[in-house]
């Protein structure tokens, strides 16, 4: 996959400047008084690590809808959610959603931001777009969090928790972690979507109010709280799978949480349980929640009565 | 009732994956580094305990309405609120509502989330849907709260309140509680809707601000505050009946409160009285309130002048 | 006036249950584990004390308006604000309002909530309703506040303020208060609307933030602050008349304040002066303010250029 | 100018009661238990002191606009901003505004609130009104603030600042202030609009949060902070001119600030500088800001591309 | 470039007063009691220092869009983003944007506010304007912040950081800074737009809550925090370039941040890293974030499926 995969996606570099007064390579430089680093990668929209992640939620627009959508428009809708190979992003899953805020939602992941947003634009393209109203979205990227322990810090944590420094048990645990880590990180950067029926989606911040300011706490304390928080989540292994992607600098919240559940009640249970963890209880600020049930385009149209 | 009761409801499992890159059972697993539990139930959208609960509020859309709704559209509206047996959820009640935010509201409960949301979708289906605008909704599930005392903790509480440990009075009270508990819990999970004319609906959170953080208080203190809170409510026995359903992980507030009143003044009185309980006064955060009066589809249409 | 005064108003009791699964008298009972009180009034929508109060604010919808409203539609508008005797609620007054939020507003009071809301629905009925957009509303009930002193507590307050317990002056004051109290309370429950040109309307809460939590203060302190607050208001006798109605459990704010002014500057002055009272300065949270000038339907249409 | 200057403006008194149940002079009286003051002015909408002030901001509505506005509609727009002598309020100025919130704004002042709001209604009247969408407005009245020093308190302040009580310098300063004060107060109540190209408009509150509650501070401290604040403003004499009008009881914010600038950079500078004054830094809460550039109707239409 | 460069832009001075009651030069004077400064520049809309900066974000309006935009309308769109030399502002760059809030955005800079806003108005002009809905905007001006060290304060800082006062190293650093400063300040006032593919945009305030009030901190402390903050940014030289423009007095937030990135991941990284700086962690309040990818008009239309 290249930097410019599809005709409708933007190039990794501006194709043209807009008149002589806009920036040019010779003038668009570093901030004043700062020398650029020795060697920098070529400008690109593709992260060195991680994928662009888009969450999109929609309502059908009904104020001018007198009849079910035509077969042609239904077909266009389904095609937007199941694009051809060339336009297919690395990950795509769709859900009908509960309540009035949205009728359905989509999660999309790809190295190229234009390929992610192209799914959104396909749902709003002339034809089907007239009948669909965007309700909410979130733009983020996948990453390996700074709180994921390195092999060495994992070893130190086990020792703090009681393992003897020279014990074979410790060595075995560390060795296992070292073997698992690459796969675990790949799963953080390029997660697979589990084949479960329910999911919930919500953004969050860490608070910065006087008396509960996450960003003025030392790393060691934040790291410890995040480890406890992770421990809470492990009780739901096999019941809930998660993706935490980063919206800092890209969208209105700092993180986006995606939880896939074997049963919707596990979604309720894990969020309730984790809310008592100090990292959430004291520092978590939560945005809108959406709960969805896995469905392809045709199932969404049927559930929403858009078909004749 | 099965996991997939109606054609338009989603299956308990994703019917298909969207292309080769989406998740599959072999890849969609637990969070990294975590072993799933020995035996897990089949993926399903139906909770093991409790029902899905939907609260939906609507306005009639009048900006293109030149005449009363046609008889056919009125009929479609009434049918959406009184579906056929096959589509009828376990509970359904409708209300006209006071004020400009909504003209009417519906509460729906069922084990299957698709059957709950299908009532919402039927009200927005082509035909009637053009004339109805969703105003607010809340998605939750019924549950037995962690603050409902077990038989043993009920006994301990009575002793703390002065009952002698070996007294026959204590034994009688505990025995009565033990007999009532299953029915009480059934009423929490599958509540009946009382035949009273008024109801109010509002969501709430427990606050997490510095100085009033519910989620950092110990269970014992939270439990005691909830017991006092329950005591306040008991003064309204016969006047007000309640349902507390859980939105944690599913919608924007943590809980949804439904109060049914023998008279609307009792709704005002109970909410005012309970606001002085520490659990509410210090920790309660309240969302929008809707007050409604029980009415079937035809009565709603008549009250809202939608009929000729 | 009966419990069911108009055809389009809802009955005091649900006219029908919606299928076999909805609530019935035998199942819709008290909260679990609670015995109802010995004798309870019949279910009704009419409060034992106080009236339902509706405040409604509207904008004319102009995005499709090419010409003045037709004479027929103007007539419908005026009729909605001056209904026939049978539909006329106990109190009704209308105002044109200043600014972009609303073009006009209505205050309505009646024992029956359906009769109050019927005024709102008449303004939105097919014909005129297409040209009117609800902007804001508030649902409340009139009441005698818990801070209104009883005869005995009034006597005690005077003694605390320096009256000699056995003085004839004290006896005379108490006796006068005793004679005035029933009329004063009637005016709180069923207030007359003064014949003054200006009015302002706004909702309010008492704050519950850490450091300024009204609901955790003892009654004695709240009572004292409310007495001081009332004292502030008395300086405006003859200039401003007020109605405080209760929205707790019914709408998004706890109280609704209606101030009628002999001159709009008195509205500004009283609100500014009272904001320094501790009850407001420390604990008052205020919602949107609307200022209106008394006008009947024709005057509203003329002021808003809706007539040809 | 009389109390009822224009046909479309409301009378100072309600022209009619709405049926027998609405208020009448004999029933609409003072608050319960309070004797009205000896002599009160006639009910009126015209303040004894100060003018009604309206700030109105608008967007052109473009979702149905296929072509420039017709010459007739353009003429109606210009006439609404330049009414005939009879309808002309005491002050009126219009501005095109920067950004997406509004395309243009108007400030209007007059003793009669109906004459102020009539400008707003003329812009929304059938014809032009279809193409204009109100974006924001604020309703206030001009006044002489309680923090404007009297001659005596001005003298005391100078002495506190070092002037000798019996010095001829002090006498001269006090005498000059005494001569200036009536004109200064007239300028506060009936301000002229300077002939400068830029202006900014924003509402504000004084905060009442725990730890920064303006309304619980003693007058002496508030007065001192306001004097320092005024001092900051004086550095901008000749660059910025201001109007502070009062919205308390009339609109959602307590004060409305209008700053006229000889250059828009002075608007930025004065607001930035004053934000460090304790009165603003600690107690100021600010609403939306609009910046505008003086323009008549035709210039607004041209700038906004509404003309052919 | 003059004060009145284009026909549709407003004049630097009001072209006419609106009737005899509006302000005139003889009456519109300084605030009461204040003598204007000796010599003041002519009234103008052009700042003595800095440029007007406009950020504009838009959605395509699709609720009436049945087919791709016509070639004529597409041409009008492209022309609005690439105006003729006469109308071309000093800087202009456009981006397609990720997510549902906006489809595309534009940043514009020019000494004349009318020339900046004319780009916005051209995008909303009859023809294309019907299909475009403004989503957000921000109005600001470029400036040299008070925290940019003068040569002398730069020297003092270096000494505090350990340089010997008389060392040739210090002299060399100071001399280099002195040479760079004019260019650096020009880049702050008239920044070039780098030729990189990604950018993010967000407004911010400095908090004034009790316990974290930026505006009550002494300059020395604020200056020190800003210096550390600048240090954080320098680590991204060559990866990220920034513009901080000022909205104080002009729009709803105090500052507008524009970050141009060589790769979108650097945008995430720099914002995340800087959030731990005390200036942000404790005092920063952030508004909506938009992320965009450089694209000209045709590329935006293609990405958004507006072309046939």
From TrEMBL, chains A, B, C, D, E:
Keyword Oxidoreductase: yes
Pfam family, one: Chlor_dismutase
Low complexity: bias regions: 16-27
Keyword Oxidoreductase in annotation: yes
Lineage: superkingdom: Bacteria
Transmembrane segments: none
Record keywords, A-Z: Heme, Iron, Metal-binding, Oxidoreductase, Peroxidase
InterPro entries membership: ChdC/CLD, Dimeric_a/b-barrel
Annotated stretches, region: Disordered: 1-45
SUPFAM superfamilies assigned to the protein according to its UniProt record, in alphabetical order: Dimeric alpha+beta barrel
Gene3D superfamilies from the UniProt entry: Apc35880, domain 1 (3.30.70.1030)
UniProt-recorded Gene Ontology molecular function terms: heme binding; metal ion binding; peroxidase activity
Family annotation (PANTHER family): COPROHEME DECARBOXYLASE (PTHR36843:SF1), HEME-DEPENDENT PEROXIDASE YWFI-RELATED (PTHR36843)
Protein name (record): Putative heme peroxidase
Lineage of producing organism: Bacteria, Pseudomonadati, Planctomycetota, Planctomycetia, Pirellulales
